[in-house]
């Protein structure tokens, strides 16, 4: 089973861009027209995209070898301190590698470090076997420390101690290198295990990524229901969402007149009640005032009769006579006309017309505009809902078309994973065991030197006795010396082989670390190569020629833009992709899919397809007929005309108020009575008038209580209702005439301009509905830029490969040969100190100063004499090596 990944990529990107087109369509639906939205649509909650937890494949631990790897890396940096010559890579990829060698000096200087190290290794490989062979022959000839004779000196102890210390230190250093080499050899096996984990985790993440991206896309498409649900809800309540807006739009011209008309109609009943109260209060006042006037007249007569008995020359008496006429009525209520005629007219009006129904009709004619809008928008609402449903089907079908591709990807990743896993398990893992054994064997070769050195030191130190002469040293001490010489022998025997492997591994691992791993870890290799504009300098295909001129096509500006998006003008860079993916950004930000062209179907073409969601065009067809709306019907007009002609406005309210304001009496009776009592107190002692005046004061107080006080409430009611009527019906005729004209104008405006008001508000309402779509589009844009198709697995896969190749494998590989090289570095001092120290441990055949003979070969070994064996033939070697001295 196989899959066309290019077609899959195009299909996936097409769906993404189609959704992006929806987002853009809401803001560019009417190009050149700036849409104003007067409402703030409710904020929709689309939730968060479903996320998946990926398998972590980027965890790395050096297992305590961090410091050692840094030391090794520092050595490689010392060998090759110069930056990578990316221009050479560029020339090589352009087929111009021969130009690199036109500047041999630069090439030599750049590779000088590797050349020096390789030369040292080769010299070591060549020289050490020769030196070992010569050293062996020299020892066999009794030279180079091979003579079993040692001169006893006082400095022997000090020299032996120094040799022991130096050999021990060198041996420990060799052991350290051997341990690191062993650990790195084991780490190489770990890299094989990690390779299986990385491959499994990476392929698993790929499957999870595509499945989750498909799930996210389904979620985004499903959120179309959230947006369309908000639109449908507003459409179902169009009487409130649009109708109320139309009514409020008409209120300044129509609503005000209607409200004034309703207010005027609503004054009829209160006017009737006020007239009734005026009529009742006026009747009571006229009757009560008549009684009060008679009582006041009688009281004046009585008071005058009383004052006739006082001394005419008494000033108090004179003053009282002058104030008697103040006991007179205030207002003349009998002169006020009644309101029976006006009251009859209002009663006739109320009995002829259903005033509350007229008020309700006048109000409902205007307030019922939302229901009228809803009734006339039934077809438009149905069309918009159908449009939304059709577009949902388009997106759902596009999303469903990706299911098969995702399944193919999942199946193929499983196949690829099985192939990679089988390769690892059948070839890499079994062969890794032999590699591990080989590495272990190399470490054991070093271990031989370490073990022989340590055993030689142990035997030598433990068995050495300073009281013994060189010829009487113990067997243990001699064994220690022999072990040290064995160490030297093994070192000479295998050092060239180890150096050969170290040199080969160095020439492989060091350039890989410098040219591959470091650039991959820092990602500078992308910035200096494929991310550079016009990196190739040549077209991708030699057959890609201009069809008209036949000349080769120009090289792509951005290589990845051409390879992935078939557009080399899109600045798609590998470094940017990895950085954005490390932040788990979405595909839009990473691949710049908004600039992608799908084989002739670019974003503008997609927008044309998406623009069929023209809610404003649908609502623009909404037409509400206001021709049958009557704000002022004939009954209402007749009722207002009759109310105007009822005569209520002809009442002389000022005359009423003038008489009412005069009060019931000209003087305040309690005050007048108190004045009489005060005057009585001022009469001469024994006057006959005093008691009479006081009696009159008491009768005046009685008048206040019995005649005046009962009428005060009627006076207040009369005044209040007269003032109310004056406010209500003053200029009634003019007001009603103006009101009727205003109502007629409002009705005319509603019938002629109401349709335009509906059109304008429908546009605003369409913007409100598009506001929901805009929220959906903005949410899509945010999701695409932030977390839709978050490509963290791409970055993780890259990091996993780099970790596997560089951290797990190459660091361990370089650490292995670096450890062996470390050991070889101390092989030479180990051999030197081993040979020197062996001289002090081994039993000598001769001891200078005790076993000396006259001339060199004049000796008979004591062992031969003890065994009664003859000595060597006389002078068997003198002819060759030595001539006996003359006596």
TrEMBL record:
This is Prominin-1-A-like isoform X3. InterPro entries: Prominin. Pfam families: Prominin. It is found in: Cell projection, Microvillus membrane. Keywords: Coiled coil, Glycoprotein, Membrane, Signal, Transmembrane, Transmembrane helix. GO terms for cellular component: apical plasma membrane; cell surface; cilium; microvillus membrane; prominosome. Belongs to the prominin family. It comes from Branchiostoma belcheri. Residues 1-25 form the signal peptide. GO terms for molecular function: cholesterol binding. Residues 715-742 form a coiled coil. It is a multi-pass membrane protein. The chain crosses the membrane at residues 112-141, 162-183, 436-462, 483-508, 815-835. The gene is LOC109471442.
């Amino acid at each position: 089973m196989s899959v066309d990944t290019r077609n899959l990529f195009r299909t996936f990107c097409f769906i993404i861009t189609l959704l992006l087109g929806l987002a853009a369509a809401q803001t560019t639906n009417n190009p050149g027209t700036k849409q104003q939205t007067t409402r703030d649509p409710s904020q929709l909650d689309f939730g968060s995209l479903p996320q998946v937890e990926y398998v972590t494949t980027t965890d790395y631990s050096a297992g305590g070898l961090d410091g050692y790897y840094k030391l090794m890396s520092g050595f490689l940096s010392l060998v090759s301190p110069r930056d990578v010559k990316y221009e050479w890579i560029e020339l090589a990829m352009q087929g111009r590698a021969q130009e690199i060698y036109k500047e041999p000096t630069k090439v030599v200087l750049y590779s000088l470090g590797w050349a020096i190290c390789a030369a040292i290794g080769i010299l070591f490989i060549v020289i050490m076997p020769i030196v070992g062979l010569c050293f062996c022959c020299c020892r066999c000839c009794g030279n180079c420390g091979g003579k079993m004779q040692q001169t006893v000196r006082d400095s022997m102890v000090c020299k032996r101690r120094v040799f022991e210390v130096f050999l021990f230190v060198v041996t420990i250093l060799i052991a350290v290198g051997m341990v690191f080499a062993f650990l790195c050899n084991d780490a190489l096996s770990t890299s094989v295990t990690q390779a299986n984990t990385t491959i499994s985790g990476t392929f698993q993440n790929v499957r999870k990524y595509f499945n989750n991206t498909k799930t996210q896309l389904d979620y985004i498409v499903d959120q179309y229901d959230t947006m369309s649900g908000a639109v449908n809800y507003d459409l179902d309540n169009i009487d409130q969402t649009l109708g109320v807006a139309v009514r409020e739009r008409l209120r300044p011209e129509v609503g005000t007149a209607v409200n004034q008309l309703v207010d005027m109609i609503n004054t009829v009943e209160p006017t009737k009640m006020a007239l009734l109260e005026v009529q009742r209060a006026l009747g009571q006042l006229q009757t009560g005032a008549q009684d009060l006037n008679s009582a006041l007249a009688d009281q004046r007569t009585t008071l005058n009769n009383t004052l006739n008995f006082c001394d005419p020359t008494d000033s108090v008496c004179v003053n009282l006579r002058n104030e008697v006429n103040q006991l007179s009525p205030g207002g003349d209520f009998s002169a006020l006309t009644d309101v029976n005629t006006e009251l009859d007219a209002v009663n006739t009006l109320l009995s002829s017309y259903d005033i509350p129904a007229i008020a309700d009709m006048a109000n409902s004619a205007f307030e019922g505009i939302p229901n009228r809008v809803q009734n006339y928008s039934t077809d438009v609402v149905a069309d918009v809902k159908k449009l939304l449903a059709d577009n949902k089907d388009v997106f759902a079908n596009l999303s469903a078309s990706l299911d098969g591709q995702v399944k193919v990807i999942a199946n193929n990743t499983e196949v690829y994973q099985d192939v990679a896993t089988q390769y690892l398990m059948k070839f890499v893992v079994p062969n890794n065991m032999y590699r591990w054994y080989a590495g272990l064997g190399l470490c054991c070769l070093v271990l031989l030197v370490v073990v022989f050195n340590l055993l030689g030191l142990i035997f030598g130190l433990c068995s050495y006795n300073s009281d013994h002469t060189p010829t009487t040293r113990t067997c243990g001490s001699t064994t220690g010396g022999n072990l040290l010489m064995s160490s030297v022998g093994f070192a000479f025997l295998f050092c060239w082989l180890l150096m050969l492997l170290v040199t080969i591994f160095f020439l492989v691992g060091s350039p890989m670390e410098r040219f591959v791993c470091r650039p991959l870890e820092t990602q500078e290799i992308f910035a200096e190569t494929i991310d550079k504009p016009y990196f190739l300098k040549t077209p991708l295909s030699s057959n890609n020629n201009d069809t008209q001129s036949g000349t080769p096509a120009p090289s792509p500006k951005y290589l990845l833009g051409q390879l992935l998006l078939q557009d080399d003008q899109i600045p798609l860079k590998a470094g940017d992709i990895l950085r954005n993916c490390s932040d788990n950004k979405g595909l839009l930000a990473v691949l710049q899919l908004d600039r992608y062209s799908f084989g002739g179907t670019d974003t503008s073409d997609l927008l044309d397809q998406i623009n069929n969601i023209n809610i404003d065009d649908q609502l623009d067809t909404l037409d509400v007929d206001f021709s049958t709306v009557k704000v002022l019907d004939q009954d209402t007009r007749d009722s207002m005309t009759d109310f105007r002609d009822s005569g209520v406005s002809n009442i002389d309210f000022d005359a009423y108020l003038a008489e009412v304001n005069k009060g019931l009496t000209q003087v305040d009776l309690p005050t007048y009575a108190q004045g009489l009592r005060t005057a009585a107190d001022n009469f001469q002692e024994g006057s006959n008038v005093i008691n009479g005046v006081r009696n009159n004061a008491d009768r005046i107080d009685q008048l206040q209580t019995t005649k005046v006080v009962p009428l005060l409430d009627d006076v207040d009611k009369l005044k209040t209702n007269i003032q109310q009527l004056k406010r209500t019906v003053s200029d009634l005729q003019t007001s009603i005439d103006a009101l009727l004209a205003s109502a007629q104008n409002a009705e005319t405006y509603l019938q002629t301009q109401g349709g335009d008001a509906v059109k304008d508000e429908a546009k605003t309402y369409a913007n409100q509905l598009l506001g929901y779509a805009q929220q959906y589009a903005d949410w899509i844009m945010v999701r695409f830029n932030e977390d839709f198709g978050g490509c963290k697995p791409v970055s993780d896969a890259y990091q996993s490969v780099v970790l596997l190749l560089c951290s797990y494998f190459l660091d361990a590989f370089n650490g292995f040969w670096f450890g062996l090289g470390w050991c070889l570095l101390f092989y030479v001092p180990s051999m030197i100190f081993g040979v020197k120290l062996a001289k002090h441990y081994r039993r000598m055949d001769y001891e200078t100063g005790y076993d000396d003979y006259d001339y060199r070969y004049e000796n008979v070994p004591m062992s031969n004499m003890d065994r009664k064996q003859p000595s060597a033939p006389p002078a068997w070697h003198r002819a060759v090596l030595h001539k006996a001295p003359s006596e």
